[in-house]
Design a protein that fits this description.
The protein is α+β, with helices and mostly antiparallel strands. α9 (592-612) runs antiparallel to α14 (760-768), α10 packs antiparallel against α13 (736-749) and α11 (709-718) packs across α13. β19 and β20 (226-229) form a beta hairpin. It is built from 15 helices and 45 strands. The protein folds into 6 domains: 21-149, Agglutinin, subunit A; 150-288, Agglutinin, subunit A; 309-423, Hepatocyte Growth Factor (3-Layer(bba) Sandwich), CATH 3.50.4; 430-471; 482-573, Phosphorylase Kinase, domain 1 (2-Layer Sandwich), CATH 3.30.200.20; 580-788, Transferase(Phosphotransferase) domain 1 (Transferase(Phosphotransferase), domain 1, Orthogonal Bundle), CATH 1.10.510.10.
Length: 792
């Protein structure tokens, strides 16, 4: 009998144990529960799976958000917040009261926020695995949920109903309400707006769904698709692109601070469903395609602030003579750093910054037809009200005053040039300085006793400053380029005496460094070889002058330099993901989407060098080793050590052979004029390597026809066997039409005759699909002879 009772007891325990476990994992938050921000790991409530958490996140030194975030990824990306416009200090508390109210109080007990639920029937709260935080009654009916009150982000299974809105954050690090809004209006229209910042009312619609039917809700489904439906459930428009399963990817749709709505994905494992996405947020889809061209209103500050220029790579910049109002917030625009032109004085002190492919639409106070650029420039120079002139290929000239609005730089604005007026000598208040000197002089002359006391002190200060300036004097040739001048000792300390080598070339070695003067920022320090001091000196001068005046998302940024004694050193931003070569040819192959983005980014960087710099730059050594990848795997062109700087009136130059075997264009070996088309050729070879994830030349190839990648690629294209290029690359095979187009573009780029090669502008248009790609001729004859000839 005792045995049977014991058996029955064990059976009951085994049956009840799973029930107990289930109760524990439901993670319901009972009445009376609270969280107090104590800057520790206990100030959050996780979802059952642990993928999301609700609690406090530190944003500033003593400023916290009550937020929801992805909790299993290192970034802890925030997707919702309760108090975005009113951060709370440490010691603040969120509580589900015994009366069913859900409130956030600061450390003094003052209410900052509460869930807008007047129901007294709330029994519990819960952080769900969908990322939705809910307040529910005893029947588990949701009486309030965060999904109904989004901030800047939507998650899978979430919907946005009529009158629903997303508001972008203000900046990358400032989560307060920003200048852009995504709204499903009461009339059913789905739009992106600029707002009447700092108010949150709609100002100007810069994107909308092209559908005449009334939209009822926007749905972000579990397959990762985002679409607009009617009241009866009919899909009116699909907003996002290719579906990706939520069981394999974390996903979010965020209206970013720059006004672009992006669909982001993040793999839950390193090899998700056979697709090799990086373990980071990647953009799967975004709207609008080009925000700088979408915002064409004649009022407001546009994609960037007033007096600023917006680039397609989502960066803002100030023109010459202007600087950011707030260095920490580029969207606040730029301020003028010089005394404006006087209407009663000659214009000799003023000049123009020429910015190709640029426009400031609207706000013209005068227009001219049939006017050449030189005359347009002169008219603006002679007009004291003119701050910028726009000249285009149609002979139109537009005069504009301050502030500039909606400035944008984009290759599609071809033939339009902005002429931004600035003072040659950046005097901000000369008259004020002169008057100050007169006053000071009068005071000193009337007080000889004070003067006798001050003179020795002034002499000491002046001599000390002269000495310190002499010690780190910036050479005149490099002034005015926004570069920091480093001493050799500073860089020696930053690199821990040049211990960690990142790479080595024929004339330079690169080390990793950390700048103590810039909050521990990682940098790449490139030391030119002292044994080649003459050649290194030439390369140094070329790099500093060329790179110091460039600024583009797809170029590695030069931060500073050292020119001290025999030391010639360049300091670049550090690229954490190394070279494209290691990414393409390593053990883990990048996915097809990444490779396409890298190809397009490299092409955009080259277009900038060729057509958007004040002086055209031909790189001369485009190859995977010279394409670096940042944290988000954005392509950055590096190593201008072989670049040849061309003058504006010089489109051809004869020079010595430069570059790397296999990427070098035929004209180098034929003593023909060298133009930007040599970079187009190199890009074509690089594009094939990106497509196929293999090197241009493989001596170990099983089939002799496969040794030279370009020849093999053309044969595969000609015989309609492109799938042979894509071994173990299923995702690219699924997109075979796009892959074929990329191969055709590469074939055009590597034509032996430079005149047959497209410009980088046209190459980008073909890559983006705005220009049709015609059938290319066979480009193989020259290349085979060069690659197989050991003399080269």
């Amino acid at each position: 009998m005792a045995f049977h009772l014991l058996y029955l007891l064990c059976f009951i325990v085994l049956v009840l144990l799973p029930c107990s476990t289930m109760a524990q994992t439901s993670k319901n938050i009972s009445l009376g529960s609270s969280l107090t921000e104590q800057n520790d790991d206990n100030s959050s409530w996780p979802s059952p799976s642990g993928e999301f958490a609700f609690g406090f996140r530190q944003i500033e030194k003593d400023g916290f958000l009550l937020a929801i975030w992805f909790d299993k990824i290192p970034e802890k990306t925030i997707v919702w917040s309760a108090n975005r416009d009113s951060l709370v200090p440490q010691g603040s508390k969120v509580e589900l009261t015994s009366g069913g109210r859900f409130v956030l109080n600061d450390a003094k007990g003052s209410q900052i926020w509460s869930a807008n639920s007047s129901s007294t029937a709330i029994s519990y709260a819960a952080m769900l695995d969908t990322g939705n935080f809910v307040l529910a009654n005893r029947n588990s009916t949701y009486l309030w949920e965060s999904f109904d009150h989004p901030t800047d982000t939507m998650l899978p299974t979430q919907s946005l109903k009529q009158s629903g809105k997303l508001f972008a954050r203000l900046t990358v690090t400032n989560y307060s309400t920003g200048r852009f809004m995504f709204s499903l209006n009461p009339n059913g229209s789905l739009m992106l707006y600029t707002t009447n910042f700092p108010q949150d009312s709609a100002n100007f619609a810069y994107w909308s769904v092209k559908n005449t039917e009334i939209g009822f809700q926007v749905i972000f489904n579990q397959s990762g698709l985002i679409y607009l439906t009617s009241k009866n459930g009919t899909i009116l428009d699909t907003i996002s692109g290719k579906p990706l399963a939520t069981q394999d990817f974390y996903q979010r749709a965020t209206l970013d601070y720059d006004g672009v709505l992006r669909h982001y994905v993040y793999p839950k494992s390193s090899s998700t469903s056979g697709e090799r996405w990086p373990m980071a947020w990647s953009t799967s889809f975004f709207i609008p395609p080009n925000i700088s061209l979408s915002i064409v209103k004649k009022v407001g500050s546009g994609a960037c602030g007033f007096n600023s220029l917006y680039r397609i790579d989502n960066t803002c910049e100030c023109p010459t003579g202007y600087s950011p109002i707030d260095p920490n917030d580029e969207l606040k625009g730029c301020k003028q750093d010089f005394v404006p032109q006087s209407c009663n004085a000659p214009a000799d002190d003023f000049d123009f910054q020429e910015v190709p492919n640029t426009n400031f639409p609207g706000l013209d106070y005068e227009q001219f037809q049939g006017m050449a650029e030189d005359q347009c420039r002169q008219n603006c120079l002679d007009d004291c009200f003119c701050a910028v002139a726009i000249s285009n290929a149609a002979g139109e000239c537009y005069m504009k005053g301050l502030p500039f609005v909606n400035g944008s730089i984009d290759s599609s604005i071809y033939g339009t040039k902005a002429l931004v007026k600035f003072r040659k000598h950046n005097s901000t208040s000369k008259k004020k300085d002169d008057s100050t000197l007169i006053i000071v002089g009068s005071v000193l002359l009337s007080s000889l006793g004070i003067l006798n006391f001050i003179l020795p002190l002034i002499t000491y200060v002046v001599v000390s400053r002269m000495y310190s300036r002499k010690a780190v004097a910036v050479p005149p040739n490099y002034q005015g380029m926004n570069l920091k001048y480093f001493t050799y000792e500073e860089l020696k300390e930053a690199t821990n005496e040049f211990k960690e080598e990142l790479g080595r070339g024929a004339s330079a070695t690169v080390f990793r460094g950390v700048l103590a003067c810039d909050e521990g920022k990682c940098v790449a320090v490139k030391i030119l070889d002292a044994k080649q001091v003459r050649e290194s000196d030439l390369e140094f001068n070329a790099e500093v002058r060329a790179i110091g005046r460039t600024n583009h998302r797809n170029l590695v940024q030069l931060l500073g330099f050292c020119n001290e004694g025999q030391h010639r050193i360049l300091v670049y931003e550090f690229m954490s993901n190394g070279t494209l070569a290691s990414f393409l040819f390593g053990d883990t192959r990048p996915n097809w989407y990444q490779r396409r983005e890298i190809a397009l980014g490299t092409a955009r960087g080259l277009l900038y060098l060729h057509e958007e710099c004040s002086n055209q730059i031909v790189h001369c050594d485009i190859k995977p080793q010279n394409i670096l990848l940042n944290d988000s795997f954005t392509a950055r062109i590096s190593d201008f050590g072989l670049a040849k700087l061309l003058r504006l009136d010089q489109t051809r130059t004869i020079t010595g052979i430069r570059g790397t075997k296999g990427y070098v264009a035929p004209e180098w070996f034929k003593n023909l004029p060298i133009t930007a088309k040599v970079d187009v050729y190199s890009f074509g070879i690089l594009l094939l390597e990106i497509i196929c994830c293999r090197k241009k030349f493989d001596e170990e190839a099983e089939d002799g026809d496969q040794i030279i990648l370009a020849d093999w690629a053309y044969d595969c294209y000609k015989h309609k066997k492109l799938h042979l290029l894509l071994e173990k690359n299923d995702e690219a095979i699924e997109d075979i039409k796009m892959m074929e187009k990329y191969v055709m573009i590469a074939m055009w780029c590597i034509q032996e005759n430079p005149s047959l090669r497209p410009t980088m502008k046209k190459t980008i248009q073909m890559l983006e699909g705005t220009v049709e790609v015609s059938k290319p001729p066979d480009p193989s004859a020259y290349r085979s002879s060069i690659l197989l000839d050991p003399a080269h």
